[in-house]
Inverse folding.
């Protein structure tokens, strides 16, 4: 168990990532990045079992293509964090921007607060690779657009009104979305359908509720005892009927 | 076809132009009487710090006024006069050659490392592109190009070339292929301190022209040779390559040869080829390029044009034919033909 | 049934005097044209797509296929195609899909450009006996080199050249994904490019493990669907290509139907079997040019700056400015796909009506990059309707560094351009995932055919260059002086920066 601290103040992301890669190669198990301010691509394409703690505000594409590491950010994250991420965990003590978890393929992302537009867009799953996006706050429009697999759970911790953002799960053809409380009927995008979560569903999401509560030091009972709406695709082939052959 | 002859005296001892006239005339079979010219370095010692700008005027009214307005916008004309000429049977004096000794206002071009040169380059491009009836054909310091349509001896006598004394001479006897013989099309081509004589045709001209134009040069002479002067200016003055590296960029070794080089040289040569692929010259050529302290000769990569080198004491000769060298220096013994693409460089040491 | 039956597109006939009832036509036709009835082969012409598989396998040349044996009343405006499209849409209310590239009869600019040859004033070069260099490097080049003088007075190079692909002939194979084409087809192409010393694209369907031995000659693609994309995939590619658009369908996404997503395709794309593979129209992490830069740099970061990154766009009206933006984004090459680019399936209305031809696009892009002094920032790869070596030579003269071929390589493997790829029944084993059909394409033979094609074009290219007195491909690139326009109008000549014949 070795730990290093890197002062990222004023550092460009390429040398920063080089230092991180070097440390991982040398077997460092925990890296603390202080004074992060807008550096993009932190941990981009990084493979390994390492814990990276970020103090500050990382730039876009945090953990892109990442395979394995755990990143915990004490601050907000920018857009497209977890982009095409393969495996590992990202925990954000704050909010994140648009296209959070874009095309994510595996691993889990926990966001304590809100996320921007098009969260979880085109997340996809394959065999045991299932991405999870857990949102404490709320998401803007087009959550789970084009979604092809994986799991999105949204708690809307401080809001009990029905969810009301357009284009929810528009074009979804795989995976599922759970939203605490209810959703307005008009929010549902093309190819999606909603129903109340069953007890089986609750069993599926309980581990994520527990883990979320643990990361952010919250009592889990409130979340466990809430009711949820499940949004899923009507078909794995939403646009099959749109075309005719020449 | 075309004939070229160049000579440099490494101790900067002066030669008058008469020997060059005789030397060029011995190669009259290589020409067609449609163009000849001489470039001489060291001919204006009284004005050596000023740019000697030679202009062909169609008349001395509108074009001259416009050129002088432009010169005075960018600097000062310290002296000007008509270049003296003497009537020859074979030459129709359709242009009036004029020369200016010009001092640029350095502060007007602050972003360049060589602001005076940039100003003069700009003036040359601007006149040749935009002012009808005027053509700048020489623009360096302490050097002059003298050329016209005619046979070598006629052009030499037209300017009385024997009255000029230089330590470095280039001369050219033209057999035009693609453009009719006109005064501007005769060699040497000059820009700033670069002068070029060329035998052959550059088949990559379309590529080279578009490349060099993207760096702010304008090819306005309707012939391939001018790009060589501009490429030399770009590679050596602006990109600060040595003469040898510039030649290697323009006539690079084949990939196969590069792969046989030692690692360091291989890396460098590959970098040159990658970076200057569009500057590389193709087709048959033998070229001599002069600058105030050097003369470089080189041929195309597969040696489609003749190139003969002579060395004797302080003098280096570059020519299309051995006879032209021997006409100047009958006692010379060291005469050889260089490898294709290899630069032959003569530098002044005084 | 208001509209009723339309005339068959093809009429198939068997010369019974010749037919020996070997039934090869029945075995080979996956569209169900033939069946055996006692001593006769019965024919259902309506099912025929003119893929000519039956003709190629018939030992007696007994099969004859005629196009449109019974046509509509001819009319210059209301053509058969127009009417049939209306019939179909009136019956279905749906978007029309078609296979292969642009089928509208636009004039082909390549065919109105002619190449130059030397006569007297400079010698033509004999490429069989003199050196002829077709090798080219794809990637970013510095604008100038920096040197320092070392202690011995020699010049030491300081500039580091960014990674470039070394391509032995300027002919590469474009991106056709596993899914769109079969594994045997991809294998054949991969072997061919490895042997020739050139490259092929994976398409956006991931990299099947059977192709790993050829990965040093493969350009991995990352498209909006991000199928099959992980670090391992990025690391395997010789280069990475971001696909923004495609000439056959600029501005719209892609859609591999679930029936083509078999076990193997699913595994390579990393999506569940039978699920549609939908590529969104845009990359949802690119909504602006600065986002493109972000994706380019993220790929470079992920692969530790060891891989060139290409960006592929469809040739659209403003392609020159777009390419300039790409050049400034940090990308190493821009791929321009003209409106004749092929595809497995595209809405025909897009295929035939959106985008511009590759000739004008390359000319405009090359000119714009030169004007901005950034031509060395990127290589230009031209694709979309490259049919023969003359097209390669012409598009290089117009400013391209290299080309991608697609359809031509498929034709080398037997494809008859029947345009029915979207059915997944390709009798040649190319555009299908049906195991019995895929098995028809033998990679040993097919790779040789593809290699032969590239070799033959390379020889012809060397001949063109030799005739033009040029012994290195760099001197052909952007050399528009070696082209002339034949019956092109002045505005077109201006765009191409080419003189007319006779000038």
């Amino acid at each position: 168990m070795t730990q290093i601290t890197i002062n990222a103040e004023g550092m460009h992301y390429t040398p920063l990532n080089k230092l991180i890669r070097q440390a991982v190669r040398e077997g460092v198990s925990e890296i603390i990045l202080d004074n992060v301010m807008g550096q993009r691509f932190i941990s981009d394409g990084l493979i390994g079992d390492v814990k990276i703690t970020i103090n500050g505000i990382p730039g876009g594409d945090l953990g892109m293509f990442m395979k394995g590491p755990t990143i915990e950010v004490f601050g907000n994250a920018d857009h497209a964090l977890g982009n095409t991420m393969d495996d590992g965990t990202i925990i954000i003590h704050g909010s994140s921007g648009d296209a959070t978890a874009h095309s994510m393929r595996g691993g889990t992302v926990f966001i304590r607060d809100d996320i921007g537009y098009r969260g979880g867009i085109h997340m996809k799953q394959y065999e045991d690779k299932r991405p999870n996006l857990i949102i404490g706050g709320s998401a803007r429009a087009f959550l789970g657009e084009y979604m092809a697999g994986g799991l999105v759970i949204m708690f809307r911790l401080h809001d009990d009104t029905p969810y009301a953002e357009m284009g929810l799960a528009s074009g979804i053809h795989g995976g599922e979305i759970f939203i605490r409380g209810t959703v307005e009927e008009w929010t549902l995008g093309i190819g999606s359908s909603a129903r109340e979560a069953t007890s089986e569903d609750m069993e599926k999401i309980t581990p994520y509720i527990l883990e979320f509560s643990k990361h952010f030091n919250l009592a889990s009972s409130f979340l466990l005892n809430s009711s949820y709406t499940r949004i899923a695709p009507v078909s794995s082939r939403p646009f099959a009927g749109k075309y005719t052959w020449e | 076809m075309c004939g070229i002859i160049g000579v440099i005296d490494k101790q900067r001892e002066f030669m008058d132009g008469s020997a060059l006239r005789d030397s060029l005339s011995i190669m009259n079979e290589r020409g067609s009487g449609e163009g000849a010219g001489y470039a001489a370095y060291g001919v204006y010692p009284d004005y050596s710090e000023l740019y000697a700008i030679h202009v062909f005027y169609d008349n001395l009214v509108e074009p001259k006024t416009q050129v002088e307005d432009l010169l005075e916008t960018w600097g000062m004309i310290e002296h000007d006069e008509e270049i003296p000429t003497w009537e020859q049977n074979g030459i129709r004096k359709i242009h009036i050659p004029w020369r200016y000794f010009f001092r640029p206002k350095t502060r007007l071009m602050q972003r360049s490392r060589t602001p005076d040169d940039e100003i003069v380059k700009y003036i040359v491009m601007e006149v040749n592109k935009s002012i009808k009836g005027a053509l700048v054909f020489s623009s360096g310091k302490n050097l002059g190009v003298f050329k016209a349509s005619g046979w070598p001896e006629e052009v030499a006598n037209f300017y009385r070339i024997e009255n000029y004394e230089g330590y470095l001479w280039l001369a050219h006897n033209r057999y035009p292929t693609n453009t009719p013989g006109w005064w501007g099309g005769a060699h040497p081509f000059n820009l700033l301190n670069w002068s070029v004589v060329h035998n052959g045709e550059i088949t990559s001209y379309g590529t080279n022209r578009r490349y060099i134009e993207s760096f702010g040069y304008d090819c306005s002479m309707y012939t391939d040779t001018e790009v060589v002067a501009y490429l030399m200016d770009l590679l050596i003055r602006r990109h600060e390559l040595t003469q040898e590296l510039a030649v290697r960029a323009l006539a690079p070794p084949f990939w196969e040869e590069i792969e046989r080089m030692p690692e360091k040289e291989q890396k460098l040569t590959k970098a040159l080829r990658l970076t200057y692929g569009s500057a590389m010259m193709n087709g048959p050529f033998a070229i001599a390029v002069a600058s105030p302290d050097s003369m470089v000769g080189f041929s195309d990569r597969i040696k489609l044009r003749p190139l003969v080198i002579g060395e004797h004491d302080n003098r280096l000769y570059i020519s299309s034919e051995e006879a032209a060298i021997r006409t100047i220096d009958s006692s010379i013994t060291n005469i050889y033909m260089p490898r294709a693409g290899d630069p032959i460089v003569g530098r002044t040491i005084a | 049934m208001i509209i009723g039956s339309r005339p068959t597109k093809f009429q198939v006939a068997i010369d019974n005097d010749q037919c020996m009832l070997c039934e090869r036509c029945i075995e080979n036709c996956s569209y169900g044209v033939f069946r055996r009835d006692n001593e006769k082969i019965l024919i259902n012409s309506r099912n025929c797509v003119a893929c000519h598989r039956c003709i190629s396998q018939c030992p007696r040349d007994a099969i004859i296929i005629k196009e449109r044996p019974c046509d509509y009343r001819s009319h210059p405006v209301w053509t058969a195609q127009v009417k049939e499209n209306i019939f179909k849409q009136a019956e279905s209310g749906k978007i029309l899909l078609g296979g292969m590239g642009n089928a509208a009869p636009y004039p082909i600019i390549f065919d109105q450009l002619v190449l130059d040859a030397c006569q007297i004033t400079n010698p033509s070069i004999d490429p069989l006996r003199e050196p002829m260099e077709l090798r080219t490097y794809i990637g970013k080049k510095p604008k100038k080199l920096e040197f320092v003088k070392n202690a011995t007075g020699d010049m030491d190079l300081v500039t580091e050249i960014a990674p470039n692909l070394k391509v032995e002939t300027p002919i590469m194979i474009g991106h056709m994904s596993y899914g769109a084409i079969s594994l045997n087809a991809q294998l054949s192409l991969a072997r061919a490019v490895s042997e020739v010393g050139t490259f092929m694209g994976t398409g956006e369907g991931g990299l099947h493990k059977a192709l790993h031995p050829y990965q040093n000659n493969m350009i991995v693609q990352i498209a909006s669907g991000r199928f099959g994309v992980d670090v391992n995939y990025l690391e395997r590619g010789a280069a990475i290509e971001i696909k923004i658009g495609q000439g056959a369908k600029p501005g719209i996404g892609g859609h591999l139907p679930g029936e083509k997503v078999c076990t193997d395709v699913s595994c390579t794309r990393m999506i569940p079997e039978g699920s549609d593979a939908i590529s969104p129209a845009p990359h949802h992490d690119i909504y602006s040019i600065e986002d493109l830069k972000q994706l380019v740099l993220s790929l470079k970061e992920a692969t530790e700056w060891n891989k060139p990154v290409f960006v592929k766009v469809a040739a659209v009206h403003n392609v020159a400015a777009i390419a300039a933006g790409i050049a400034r984004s940090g990308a190493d090459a821009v791929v321009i796909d003209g409106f004749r680019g092929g595809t497995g399936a595209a809405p025909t209305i897009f295929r035939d009506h959106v985008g511009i031809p590759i000739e004008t696009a390359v000319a405009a892009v090359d000119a714009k990059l030169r004007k901005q002094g950034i031509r060395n920032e990127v290589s230009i790869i031209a694709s979309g309707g490259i049919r023969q070596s003359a097209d390669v030579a012409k598009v290089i003269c117009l400013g391209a560094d290299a080309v991608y071929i697609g359809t031509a390589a498929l034709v080398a493997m037997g494809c008859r351009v029947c345009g029915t790829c979207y059915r997944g029944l390709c009798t040649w084993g190319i555009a299908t995932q049906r195991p019995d059909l895929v098995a028809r394409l033998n990679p040993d033979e097919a790779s040789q055919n593809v290699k032969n094609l590239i070799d033959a074009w390379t020889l012809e290219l060397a001949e063109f260059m030799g005739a033009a007195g040029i012994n290195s491909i760099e001197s052909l690139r952007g050399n528009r002086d070696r082209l002339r326009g034949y019956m092109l109008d002045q505005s077109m000549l201006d765009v191409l920066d080419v003189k007319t014949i006779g000038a």
User: Anything to note?
Assistant: The CA atoms of residues 121 and 212 of chain A lie 21 Å apart. Chain A has a mean pLDDT of 95.
